[in-house]
Design goal:
Layout: H1 2-5, E1 10-14, H2 18-35, E2 40-44, H3 49-60, E3 67-71, H4 72-80, H5 89-93, H6 104-109, E4 118-120, E5 122-131, H7 132-137, H8 152-167, E6 172-173, H9 180-192, E7 201-202, E8 207-208, H10 212-227, H11 237-245, E9 251-255, H12 259-263, E10 270-274, E11 284-287, E12 289-292, H13 300-315, H14 317-321, E13 326-327, H15 330-333, H16 336-339, E14 354-355, H17 368-382, H18 387-402
Parallel strand pairs: 1-2, 1-3, 6-9, 11-14
Antiparallel strand pairs: 3-12, 4-12, 5-9, 5-10, 5-11, 5-13, 7-8
Helix pairs in contact: 9-17, 10-17, 17-18
């Protein structure tokens, strides 16, 4: 274990690539500059299940890092397996933090059997990107050049129709093939906006608890948008964003992390807002990145050093927010610098309506659950399956996981 070999070094594992990875490296460098040479040993691993397997095996083998990153929806599995140290108010106070330092919505969502095992740095919701040039021609912008509010399915479809007249192609785009998570996020956002929607999983994943009628209704609506040719039925992750970037659609639905890609497109003028409320209440699928302390025998000095590293990264939340993520750290979230950060702060309200995936050993970001359900719902978007058939298949596949004893 790195901290045993060199007690002055904090070992840190994460799963950040692309723009997130570059920003995290900048934040790590700031910490090293503050603390001196050999103060940090950071490593980045492959995103998704391989990463969480590595963290679990390293902890079981008594060789974990001092600090690791975990999605909020995955930290509960690690905690239930006994692989994480609980985070207490006394521990937070060691570095000048408390539970009130974080967005209440995110902090409450972290609870696992009444305890906290993670420290959040952000919320990353599913959002709506818009091409300002297309929207201006379609009369969808207000006097300040921002997107006019879209509320309800009638206004949404009217906006897509107006945009399609400008683009000659599409009104909006979202990935339908090759990225099962996106299909799940789009569905979960609209499903959760409806009165009567219920979590998909209950009893720790041992039961399927979704509202069948609302699921069919939501899938019917999603499919209707492709049937009406307002959105493409077949497009992959890169293709869906390219349509908006090149003015072939006005809107693009994806996680806010693609802001880095959008900013790299020469001449593209774009904005970002929360997913429009098409039904009864605001809601969007999302997750949060958190810091966890894998279980090990730590001295008080080791604990304080690990928490001090986390505090240093939280203090740099504005750098992290530039990559699109909504800060969970209240001093940054409430700061004028963040409010001045555009378009990032324009969708900050999404933190109050974010919907996290239900807890189960097989759920969370990049999980078997998202891949299973998303694959079937993608077929609905493509017109390759009816909502009823897709739901039936997804249910049969999920029941295998629900009926399997948790390996944790």
């Amino acid at each position: 274990m790195g901290s045993q070999l060199d007690p002055g070094t904090v070992t840190y594992w994460n799963l950040f690539g692309g723009g997130d990875g570059s920003r995290m490296q900048t934040m790590e460098a700031t910490y090293e500059k503050q603390k001196g040479p050999n103060s940090l040993q950071a490593a980045t691993f492959a995103w998704g299940n391989p990463y969480y397997t590595k963290v679990s095996l390293a902890t079981l083998g008594d060789a974990p890092p001092d600090v690791a990153v975990s999605h909020l929806t995955r930290q509960s599995n690690l905690a239930i397996a006994g692989l994480l140290e609980p985070i207490t108010e006394d521990m937070l106070a060691m570095v000048g933090l408390s539970s009130s330092s974080f967005s209440p919505k995110v902090w409450e969502a972290l609870a696992v059997n009444g305890q906290r095992y993670a420290i959040p740095i952000d919320t990353h919701p599913f959002v709506l990107y818009y091409n300002k040039d297309v929207c201006e021609k379609a009369d969808l912008l207000d006097g300040d050049g921002n997107l006019k509010e879209i509320r309800g399915t009638d206004q949404w479809e009217a906006a897509l129709e107006a945009a399609k007249k400008v683009t000659g192609s599409w009104g909006a785009s979202v990935a339908t093939v090759g990225d099962t998570a996106t299909s799940w996020r789009w569905f979960q956002s609209l499903y959760s906006q409806q009165t009567g929607s219920t979590p998909w999983l209950g009893d720790g994943g041992r039961k399927l608890t979704y509202n069948e009628d609302l699921t069919i209704k939501t899938l019917d609506y999603i499919q209707s948008l492709t049937k009406k040719k307002l959105m493409p039925a077949i497009t992959d992750y890169t293709g869906s964003q390219t349509l908006m970037f090149t003015g072939k659609s006005a809107f693009y639905l994806q996680g806010e992390w693609e802001i880095t890609t959008a900013e790299s497109i020469d001449g593209l003028k774009f904005g970002m807002v929360p997913v429009p409320t098409l039904f009864d209440q605001p809601a969007c699928q999302g997750d949060s990145h958190t810091f966890v302390l894998p279980r090990m025998n730590r001295s008080e000095d080791q604990l304080k050093r690990a928490l001090g590293f986390v505090k240093s990264l939280l203090d740099q939340s504005l750098t992290w927010a530039q990559g699109g993520h909504i800060p969970a750290y209240v001093p940054t979230l409430d700061s004028q610098q963040y409010k001045d950060l555009k378009p990032q702060s324009n969708y900050a309200d999404a933190v109050n309506s974010v919907v996290y995936d239900a807890q189960a050993w097989y759920s969370g970001s990049g999980s078997n659950f998202e891949n299973t359900v998303g694959a079937q719902f993608g077929l609905v978007q493509q017109g390759q399956a009816t909502p009823a058939a897709a739901l039936s298949t997804a249910r049969d596949q999920l029941l295998v996981y629900a009926d399997t004893k948790s390996p944790l």
